[in-house]
Amino acid sequence: MIRQQPPGEPEYVARLRAGDGDALAEVYDLFAPMVFRVGYRLLGETADAEDLVHDVFLGLAHAVRTFEARGSFEGWLRRVAARAALMKLRRRRARHDRQARYGRSLPVFHREPALAGGLDLDQALERLEIKYRAVFVLKEMEGYSHEEIGEILGISVNSARVRLYRARQQLREYMRRGS
């Protein structure tokens, strides 16, 4: 997906690289909602998505040094957010595995049932394994190509296609059954 750079984007990048705090505030105002959306769709919790926004923008002045103007700044920032969310999910899963191994129980939070007795998409997404959820969110909700997804996740294009197919199958089944 090729997008036009918004006016001033090269200027933002230069100002960010120079350590301009006002540029960081401007970029935050422009792109924080997008980073939050990516985080929420991958992490499934508002607090985690808010933490992701904080983490991404806290490290942006340093990370922007790796930005190459081959694509849009927004696309690059979206990839940074997706990778950071996936790392957060991996840490969460590792922590959960350690707690389960040592017999500590984790609190379970229940949502109200969705309308019409079935699961809503967010609930169904939460049930997917992260490898399927990540591909589904990046392809269907964020509009990335399979090639871009492969690059973001470090998998082959064919693996991205297979995972998307399996994610769609599982989501259909979860939403059909409603449980």
Tell me what the structure shows.
- The chain is mainly alpha-helical and 179 residues long.
- It folds into two domains: 1-109, Rna Polymerase Sigma Factor, Chain: A; 112-179, Winged helix-like DNA-binding domain superfamily/Winged helix DNA-binding domain (Arc Repressor Mutant, subunit A).
- It is built from nine helices and no strands.
- It has helices at 9-17, 21-43, 46-58, 60-63, 73-101, 121-127, 130-141, 146-153, 157-177.
- The model is unreliable at 1-6 and 104-117 (pLDDT under 50).
Radius of gyration: 18 Å
Write out the CATH superfamily name of the largest domain. RNA polymerase sigma factor, region 2, helix turn helix motif
Return the average pLDDT rounded to an integer: 78
Q: Structural class, please?
A: mainly alpha
Order of helices and strands: HHHHHHHHH
How many distinct helices? Answer: 9
Task: Give unreliable regions as ranges.
Answer: 1-6, 104-117
Strand content bin:
under 5%
Helix content: over 70%
CATH fold group of the largest domain: Rna Polymerase Sigma Factor, Chain: A
End-to-end gap: 35 Å
Query: How many beta-strand runs?
Result: 0
The CATH C-level class name of the largest domain? Mainly Alpha
Global morphology: globular
Can you give me a brief rundown of this structure?
It is built from nine helices and no strands. The chain is mainly alpha-helical and 179 residues long.
